[in-house]
Amino acid sequence: MEYNNRKAFHDYEIIQKWTAGIILEGWEVKALDANNGDISVGYCRFVKNDFCLSYSKISPLKHHNQDDADHIKDRKLLVNKAEMKKIEQGLKERGFTCIPLKMYRNKGHLWKVDIALVKPLKNYDKRVKLKEKDIKRQNERN
């Protein structure tokens, strides 16, 4: 199972990418396997001294006890110190943010998150990008 943030490639200019592990509870792993996740509205931030994925939604399964399930909570990301310093420096700069691009299971059956330091695109940049894409597509057809 794989979750992609397709909107990110349209709305943002990607500056740098990293891969991070994510700490999940048992019911969250089962819910992700059952396709009950959404990372498109999430973003990464520092909470106290932890680097977390915030506002990514993992809905519990129907037969799961709903009382203890907080499906929009901060989930700790596992990155090494050098990467964490680079991300922190990037976030301190004006206009940059960190978002998840993709969440997937690796070969060892662990859930991983591809995160990126990004800068929002202006509307005219998006239009130029779409025009270039259309021109490229037309040239391939001919």
Describe this structure in words.
The protein has 142 residues and is of the alpha+beta class. Helices cover 32% and strands 36% of the residues. The chain is built from four helices and nine strands, in the order βαβαβββββαββα. It has a seven-stranded antiparallel sheet with strand order 1-8-9-2-7-5-4. A two-stranded antiparallel ribbon has the order 3-6. A hairpin with a 5-residue loop joins strand 8 and strand 9 (111-120). The model has no long low-confidence stretch (mean pLDDT 87).
Summarize the structure.
By secondary structure, this protein is an alpha+beta fold. It has helices spanning 6-11, 26-33, 81-92, 123-141, and strands at 2-4, 12-22, 37-38, 43-47, 50-54, 57-58, 75-78, 97-105, 111-120.
Q: Spans with pLDDT under 50 lasting ≥5 residues?
A: none
Structural Rg: 17 Å
Question: How widely separated are the two ends?
Answer: 36 Å
Order of helices and strands: EHEHEEEEEHEEH
The pLDDT mean sits at 87
Helix tally?
4
Strand order of the largest sheet: 1-8-9-2-7-5-4
Helix proportion range: 25-40%
Query: Which structural class should the secondary elements be placed in?
Result: alpha+beta
Percent of sequence in beta strands: 35-45%
Q: Mind summarizing the main beta sheet?
A: 7 strands, antiparallel
Q: Shape from CA axes?
A: globular
Strand tally is: 9
Provide the descriptors you would attach to this structure in a database record.
single chain, 142 residues, alpha+beta
